């Protein structure tokens, strides 16, 4: 069976971070492992505290995973300090990790800062050069490109700038646009919009984590980057459409929705109806 690893923070509220990643990877048909960079005391209304893993401990987590169940793809989410970013970069290069998806998590939906200012520079220096794709939302793309983004044309200019500054593809997510939720993928030789109707659901906690984990899961299964983004976009749209209403703030998505078992696979990589997820919309 294919496997993907999430290197990210834990969200005690279950909507974002490691918890979203493990659900997404599982429902996209790969085995999920995780190296936790920080514990957050968090729910749908906010982040109340953060306890970082030590660089030594994170090293041991990554070593434990790579020396036993080698991931076919890696997703990196919240990493709050430069020291932890350096550990991740060094270990992933040591193991020649493939298909690295970087979600440059900076600020939570609830407004809490999840990365130190100086670590943003380290992320640019250490993680973007080893990523196959990075998935900034609009505020993150503004920081990485150094320009404001107000229109679809701005999105295009900023994503192209990031893609020319770093050797990775860039998926600029349009969730923060007021109109449609269209995402833009810029690769070295191509530019492609992934159109998404804006779903009227205020519960968007964990959308970025979910999208990047679904991309990693599909890369792990051998899909091309473009197909992986396409499948991940379908997954996130399904999970948002299947509306959950939990908690008092911006709640989590519903991963237990049914897309006819399309993304649940057995160990041969074949669709496996007996493992179909039949959560529906409740
Ligand atoms: N209301 C919505 N309707 C449809 N898709 C959405 C909605 N909000 C976010 N998305 C999608 O969810 C994914 C994550 O986007 P975004 O919310 O911008 O990221 P982040 O969680 O990092 O802020 C993108 O594919 C985006 O288009
Ligand atoms: C541990 C962790 N990782 C990532 C996010 C970002 O997710 P969102 O932007 O949906 O709040 C989060 N809130 N918590």
Automatic annotation (TrEMBL):
Superkingdom, according to UniProt? Bacteria
A GO BP term, please?
Answer: thiamine biosynthetic process
Ranges for the Pyridoxamine kinase/Phosphomethylpyrimidine kinase domain?
11-254
| Record-linked SUPFAM superfamilies | Ribokinase-like
The record, for PANTHER family, names: HYDROXYMETHYLPYRIMIDINE_PHOSPHOMETHYLPYRIMIDINE KINASE THI20-RELATED, PHOSPHOMETHYLPYRIMIDINE KINASE
Q: Per the record, what are the reactions this protein catalyses?
A: 4-amino-2-methyl-5-(phosphooxymethyl)pyrimidine + ATP = 4-amino-2-methyl-5-(diphosphooxymethyl)pyrimidine + ADP; 4-amino-5-hydroxymethyl-2-methylpyrimidine + ATP = 4-amino-2-methyl-5-(phosphooxymethyl)pyrimidine + ADP + H(+)
Gene3D superfamilies xref list: 3.40.1190.20
Q: Which UniProt keywords apply?
A: ATP-binding, Kinase, Nucleotide-binding, Thiamine biosynthesis, Transferase
Which GO CC annotations does the UniProt entry carry?
cytosol
Name of this protein: Hydroxymethylpyrimidine/phosphomethylpyrimidine kinase
E.C. number: 2.7.1.49, 2.7.4.7
Q: Does the keyword Heme apply?
A: no
The annotated pathway is:
Cofactor biosynthesis; thiamine diphosphate biosynthesis; 4-amino-2-methyl-5-diphosphomethylpyrimidine from 5-amino-1-(5-phospho-D-ribosyl)imidazole: step 3/3; Cofactor biosynthesis; thiamine diphosphate biosynthesis; 4-amino-2-methyl-5-diphosphomethylpyrimidine from 5-amino-1-(5-phospho-D-ribosyl)imidazole: step 2/3
UniProt-recorded Gene Ontology molecular function terms: ATP binding; hydroxymethylpyrimidine kinase activity; phosphomethylpyrimidine kinase activity
Family classification: Belongs to the ThiD family.
């Amino acid at each position: 069976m294919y496997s993907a690893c999430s290197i990210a923070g834990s969200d005690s509220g279950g909507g974002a971070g490691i918890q979203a990643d493990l659900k997404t990877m599982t429902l996209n048909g790969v085995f999920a492992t995780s190296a936790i960079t920080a514990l957050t005391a968090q729910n749908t209304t906010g982040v109340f505290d953060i306890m970082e893993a030590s660089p030594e401990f994170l090293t041991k987590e990554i070593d434990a995973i790579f020396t036993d169940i080698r991931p076919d793809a890696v997703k990196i989410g919240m990493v709050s300090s430069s020291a932890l970013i350096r550990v991740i970069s060094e270990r992933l290069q040591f193991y020649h990790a493939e298909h690295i998806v970087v979600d440059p998590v900076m600020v939570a939906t609830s407004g809490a800062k999840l990365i130190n200012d100086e670590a943003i520079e380290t992320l640019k220096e250490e993680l973007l050069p080893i990523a196959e794709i990075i998935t900034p939302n609009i505020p993150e793309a503004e920081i990485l490109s150094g320009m404001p983004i107000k229109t679809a044309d701005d999105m295009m200019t900023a994503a192209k700038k990031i893609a020319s500054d770093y050797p990775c593809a860039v998926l600029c997510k349009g969730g923060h646009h007021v109109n449609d939720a269209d995402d833009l993928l810029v690769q070295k030789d191509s530019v492609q919009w992934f159109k998404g109707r804006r779903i009227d659901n205020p519960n968007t906690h964990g959308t970025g984590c979910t999208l990047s984990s679904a991309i990693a899961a599909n890369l792990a299964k051998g899909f091309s980057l473009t197909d992986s983004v396409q499948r991940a976009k379908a997954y996130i749209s399904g999970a948002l459409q299947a509306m959950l209403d939990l908690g008092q703030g911006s709640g989590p998505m519903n991963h237990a929705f049914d897309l006819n078992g399309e993304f649940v696979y057995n160990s041969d990589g074949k669709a496996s109806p007996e493992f179909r997820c039949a959560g529906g919309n409740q």
